[in-house]
Amino acid sequence: MSSAASAEHHKEGQEASPKLVVAISVDQFSSDLFSEYRSTFRHGMKRLAGGAVFPSGYQAHAATETCPGHATIMTGSHPGRAGIIANNWIDLRVARDDKTVYCAEDERVEGTSFGAITAATQGPYIASAWHLLVPTLGERLKATSPQSRNVAVAGKDRSALMMGGTDVDAVYWWKRKGFATLSDREVGPPIAALNARIADYIDQARAPYPVPDHCAARNNQIVVSDNQSVGTYDFRRPEGTARIFRGSPDFDKVTIEAAMALIDSMKLGQGEVTDVLSVGLAATDYIGHAFGTGGLEMCIQMAQLDRNLGLLFEHLDAAGMDYVAVLTADHGGHDLPERLRLQGVPDAERIDPNLNAKFVGKQVKDILKDSSDVPVLHADSPFGDYYVSLDLPAERRAEVKKIAMMMFAEHPQVEAVFDHDMLSALPMPKGPPEEWTMAERTRASFHPDRSGDFIVLLKKAVTPIASGGPGYVATHGSPWDYDRQVPILFWHKDLAHFEQPLSVRTVDIAPTLAALIGVEIPADEIDGKCLDIDGGKANSCER
Ligand SMILES: [Zn+2]
User: Are the CB atoms for 533 and 539 separated by under 8 Å?
Assistant: First the structure.
């Protein structure tokens, strides 16, 4: 795009659009991981790091979870505008008994439930993108170019659905032992064939992954509890342990195989019009949760992620199509407190097990001399949205809210407590996201109809897992930059390499891609703005 020939084309307004947009989200791939491992990349990540590089991208909002993060990437909207305030929230008005709502379900369907079932185990809920209040890039493209296809595949249903949206030609995600799709659709033959191949080996024993030389220094045992330690696992598996497949590099490999099967069978990017393919790679997140970010496990995963992305790009190259790729993450992450304390962060700690709706709600009731057994506070997590029971009279609701907010605010692990009505009155923040106040970060993932009566933010380096357990020792979700900062990497064969250290936001990705493929998005419909990724005199935002 920077050559004289393409400048000529540009003048004539005839520059061809890429025929395929490949948008990749690597779940929990923080800017910290990118900078730590960047010099070791040799394959797909190396290619991306040679394009238009924004190492300081921001998932700018406070609720740095998977669903809100994925909702920003292809919509150009902060989670507050998109309506995706968290992975799960409480809706006390919903008709069904279970008042916990999952971001990527349709809770209006009778007989469904989410609450007791975690996103990890995937219960009897109906996967859907209906909570997403804004269109994705693929949906906008299809509105003006009906022959274009919008396809999404991911390790998690919420990732595929938030990047694809509702108007999708194909959407797949991992469910138990294979890829699944929407309840009213059939799994197509190429994915069914892949599922059959996976079924052949998923329960088999697995040999350890090779340990790259640079991983040796990370290969140290960290004790989490009397019967659990992390830091030295090389992903070997005994027979019959399909359940730990997700938390291994194999999981990204099969997700990329699914993407390649869809590219081939649907001939994505090989027609007259542009198609959009969103790919969500979840292994980094499962590995980060299970083992933290600083051990042998993440080191091996980074090397394998690099290789697996290389396979995808080689596949696209072999098909000979003109594609533009972008890679980012839904949120960042940081290490488990037990290792952080050994590595220069003496204050890192786990959350007080009594900092939650149940315990604080009980204390509020004691103060109000309420001896009923009806809970007054509801929340899905120790941080984030808290809801006051609707069963109470208005005056009592106000008292409960006031006392609860005071009790949270006084807790030494709490950074801030924000009132729903205060946040409602704030405009959506603008400007450099690293300069945003805590209230502005919270506003960016706040929606007046879905957010809590008040929102609790934890102090830096407080891990909101009271005691670690298998598969879950570290996490993200905070308003701090270790959870907000993610790389944003664009690659196209004609893009010159440049490095832009100033901050940009993941909401800038959709308008940047839209300009490349000729989709117009009215500025007032989104929060992001187009980034000129040409790097030379031409402006990729003015094609
Ligand atoms: Zn996660």
Answer: no
Q: Which residues contact 380 (CB under 8 A, 6 or more apart)?
A: 86, 88, 89, 90, 100
Token readout for 207 is 């040999």
Q: What is the average pLDDT across 232-242?
A: 93
Q: Could you say which DSSP state residue 237 is in?
A: B
- Ligand 1 centre to CA of 14 (Å) is 43
Asked if 483 and 332 touch (Cβ cutoff 8 Å), the reply is yes
pLDDT band at 16 (very low <50, low <70, confident <90, very high): confident
Residue 178 pairs in a beta bridge with 175
Across 291-316, average pLDDT: 98
Q: Which residues surround ligand 1, an ion (CB under 5 A)?
A: 285
Question: 2 falls in which pLDDT band (50, 70, 90)?
Answer: very low
Distance 65 CA to ligand 1 centre (A): 6
Amino acid at position 429, single letter? P
pLDDT in tens, 206-228: 999 999 999 999 999 999 999 99
| Cβ atoms < 10 Å from Cβ of 374 | 10
Catalytic residue numbers read: 66
3-class secondary structure, 142: helix
Q: Model's pTM, two decimal places? A: 0.95
Q: What distance in Å separates the CA atoms of residue 399 and residue 220, rounded to the nearest whole number?
A: 50
Which secondary structure element, helix H or strand E, spans residue 325, and what is its range?
Answer: strand 323-328
Distance (Å) from CA 475 to ligand 1 centroid: 6
Per-residue buried b or exposed e for 192-210, using 16+ beta carbons within 10 Å of the residue's own CB: eebbeebeeebeeebeebe
CA of 16 to the centre of ligand 1 (A): 38
Q: What integer is the mean pLDDT of 313-328? A: 97
319 C-alpha to center of ligand 1: Å? 33
Tokens 């050559």 sit on residue: 3
Query: Can you list the positions of beta strands (E) in 424-542?
Result: 454-458, 462-463, 485-491, 498-499, 504-505
CA distance 172 to 26: 16
- For 28: left if phi > 0, alpha if psi spans -120 to 50, otherwise beta; the answer is left
Q: What spacing in Å lies between the alpha carbon of 447 and ligand 1's midpoint? A: 22
Spatial contact of 21 and 323, defined as CB atoms under 8 Å apart: yes
What pLDDT is recorded for position 124? 85
